[in-house]
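Forum: Protein Structure Q&A
Topic: Joint prediction for protein chains with partners

I've read a bunch of threads here and the consensus seems to be that you should model interacting components together rather than docking separate models afterwards. I'd like to see that in practice. Below is the full input, 670 residues plus whatever partners are listed. Could one of the regulars post the assembled result?
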Amino acid sequence: MQQQETACTDSIEMTYREAVRAALREALTRDKRVFLMGEDIGRYGGCYAVSHGLLAEFGPERIRDTPLSESGFTGAGIGAAMAGMRPIVELMTVNFSLLALDQILNNAATVRHMSGNQFGVPLVIRMATGAGRQLAAQHSHSLEGWYAHIPGIKVIAPATLEDARGMLWTALQEPDPVLIFENVMLYNMSGKLASDPGAVNIDKAVVRRQGRDISLITYGGSLWKTLEAATALAGDGIEAEVIDLRSLRPLDDATIMASVGKTRRGVIVDEGWRSGSLSAEIGMRIVEQAFWSLDAPIGRVCSEEVPIPYPRHLENAALPQAPKIVAVAKAALGRA
Amino acid sequence: MTVAAAKAHLTREHMLDLLKQMIRIRRFEDKCAELYTQEKIRGFMHLYDGEEAVAVGVISALEKRDRIIATYREHGQALVRGVPMTTVMAEMYGKREGCSRGRGGSMHLFNAATNFYGGNAIVGGGLPLAVGLALASHMQGDDLVTACFFGDGAVAEGEFHESLNLAALWQLPVLFVCENNLYAMGTALALSESETDIQRKAACYRIASEPVDGMDVVAVEAAARRAVQAVRDTRKPYFLECRTYRLRAHSMFDPQLYRNKAEVESWRPREPIVRFQGWLEANQLIHSDEVSRMVAEIDAEIAEAVAFAEAGNWEPVEQLCRFVYADSAVPTGQ
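Posted by a regular:
Agreed with the consensus. Here's the joint model:
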């Protein structure tokens, strides 16, 4: 995994996993209404070891191990949020979140509207997403684009240490439900992070690499593959601009259009499947808002339309990879 | 009629109030059915005809500060709870003055002022929310009881079992109220459950449970008082199975192919208003002119509610996308 560097002078080395844990610890310390709920988050320490140690520090009332009842405890998080608490629900993976989809879609996303603004659901739901660990077709999918389809929730995808550390607190200040998608391949990523990091917004995209020739639009785990591709493109004299969406709902149209307006070309990199996807939504928005700026068709690099397979070589082939991104970007530049 | 319980808990004034509450629901819904045929009320509408004793009995046993979560057949619960009939009717019309600002309709009555956490139209979907409301009570250290109404159909849902387990496991103050009217829409209980004695399922989760004649408002209230007291004192869940019967169709679109008229007719003598009023009359606790006066008051309230709804306003279409997020957090572009 690539290293991440920051310019902070007073910084400490940590992993993405530790950054999320530090954010959880800060939230639990700063706000007595905050508590964690999820499968194996306490005694086991979290499936991906994110919440390791928090049980000893905060006790079983606030670090609640749950039965394997995704719908039940997610709904309980919604109810507790409606009654003034600030729950953080952890769903072990996005595939398991489908067992809680009724509560997320039919309750969390609708209660404010259905009740005529009398009740809100200030709930944060975190979950792991993405492939790359040979976990096959029931633990590896990227369904955050599905969730981004739903009015009433916000969907964010921290790709960097700063965002893993800073987005949680901002999400907890939201009066409405926020889903945080943590790509499993990022947990071991390490780098420097300010020892006293500031707050970050959760509604703006960020340009992670400046460039003039083409806009590569991505988020989450694919950010690092896209930056790798941009480096390779630079070797061929192509300066790619890389946009990290950070927020998948709402989408920061302004940042996307400003970049595409400048480079006149765009490629979207999304670990979700292509059909009916977030990448399709972004592409269409570019067509709607920046069509006359374009010099080439919008390109896409998505996962192949297959349940993620187990063997390493097939899994790798199913996912967006830097060489594919390079190829699609060059095609958009007429340099295939 | 459970005379012993009545003597233990009921003054004459309270008994008349129980009767009035039931008649109030019945006549309100009779008016709703009429308004539905006039297309003033649209969408799905589910009437409570025959089941009134459950809402009246249970909610009479709750304190105002307690929380209620109900199903899509919740007009009765909302009215007994004290959601103004004017705003309930306006909600049925879809008017801005409705208790959910017209956004919810018949199936989604909400009222924060009376701790009414809504009609939930996903069968079983309200149970996890009730667990969460009670979890908040537990963590905040208050003495509230959360009453959760659901039907026998919900018993087949995974969320029912998950919620009972969580409430028992974490010892949360939830009063589960199963309104067993013997049909999940058109599917008889015996066709959907291997064990039709529903309260036994609660016992399997080590939740104190009891069945009660849901057609007997006094019995329901007596059981609910025991149950509410137990939840408030022990901070543990309690399960009431109220055995009742729906005399009308499931919704306004239901031709009732799944049951015969004789079965429905066999329940009519047991229906809660006839039964309770008859008992009050037989025991000379009420005079017919008192009933007439009661009905006249209710009808005046209904007329006022209809006038309120008729005079209400349609939400301007410009307001369509409000309340998807809190106003301060409306994202642009989506």
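Strands of chain B lie at 67-71, 116-120, 146-151, 174-180, 183-184, 187-188, 208-213, 238-243.
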